[in-house]
Amino acid sequence: MADRIINILTNASYESKKTAERLSSSLLERGFKPFYGFDGDAELSICIGGDGSFLKTAHNNNFPRIPFVGINTGHLGFYQEIIPGKIDEFLDSYMEGKYSRSQIKLVKADIYTKNKVFKQYAVNEMVLKASHSKLVHINVFIDSNHLEKFSGDGLLISTPSGSTAYNFSSGGAIVHPSLHVLQLNPISPVNSSAYRSLGSSIIVPGGHTISLVLEKRYASANLLLVDGAENFYTNLHRVNLRLSNKYITKLVFSENSYWNNLKDKFL
Ligand code: NAP
Predict the structure, then answer these.
(1) pTM of the complete model
(2) Is 88 a catalytic residue?
(3) Domain limits at 111?
(4) Considering its fold, how many domains does the chain have in total?
(5) Which amino acids bring their CB within 6 angstroms of ligand 1?
(6) Per-residue DSSP letter, 89
(7) 3-state SS class at 178
(8) What is the helix, strand, coil percentage profile of the chain, to 5?
(9) Ligand 1 mean position to 101 CA, how many Å?
(10) pLDDT of the chain along its 267 residues, tens only?
């Protein structure tokens, strides 16, 4: 019979490493083959840490198709359902197939600079800003319809799963992960006689393309935050964003976990 490999991906904290050791022996007791790192033949990846560790794991392994489950040793742990004290219960449920699957949809950006086109994917969000904390001026199009000329700190485009992160802190709505949408959220929009921008976020169908076109005179250095990671682009002209066909599968063990999680983590 083929080995049943389970990836263990952990951050460097003491608690995470201890949790990984306990997880590894519980897996061996049940006949699984634990692998520290990412093996493409594994049936499951278990990520130990907080949301930040999960995001890093997803990016470093190119948003793998292998389903994942998170054990929370971080601060918030919105993606991390399992608590370290419940590893055995979780593994029993896993072996009995007592879980459902939830899709974490990604946002895709095509980034057009003067000479090159780049591609980026994010789990939570992308944020387009000027570098050096300058005011940014962006023409916003939805499927080539001009919507507004935004002026402010930046524009944040969040996925449904990312809506509880930076988007929520910036006054955006929480969106259930089952919805096929993106959220366009202005960060500190300017509203004056000189500039006028929408002051609240817009929910955009996932199949529509949000185009952010920078005013030419500001096109020399801009910052695109991709799940919090900084990417600087010179001569950036346009960023096209849409909900990607790529997704990450998360195993969900408790019923109604989304709503309970929301209440536990935010209220
Ligand atoms: P970080 O700045 O070290 O931590 C960001 C915080 O956001 C952590 O508490 C993290 O949870 C939490 N978080 C991440 N994804 C979440 C989600 N989908 N729902 C609810 N909370 C979430 O950065 P990081 O750990 O590398 O994470 C990157 C993320 O930070 C970005 O994608 C962005 O959403 C967020 N961020 C938020 C703000 C803000 O709220 N003003 C500013 C910058 C970046 P854990 O404690 O479990 O790791």
Answers:
(1) 0.96
(2) no
(3) 106-246
(4) 2
(5) 50-52, 55, 74-78, 124-125, 161-162, 164-166, 169, 227-228
(6) H
(7) coil
(8) 25, 45, 35
(9) 23
(10) 789 999 999 999 999 999 999 999 999 999 999 999 999 999 999 999 999 999 999 999 999 999 999 999 988 999 999 999 999 999 999 999 999 999 999 999 999 998 899 999 999 999 999 888 889 999 999 998 999 999 999 999 999 999 999 999 999 999 999 999 999 999 999 999 888 899 999 999 999 999 999 987 555 679 999 999 999 999 999 999 999 999 999 999 998 789 999 998 988
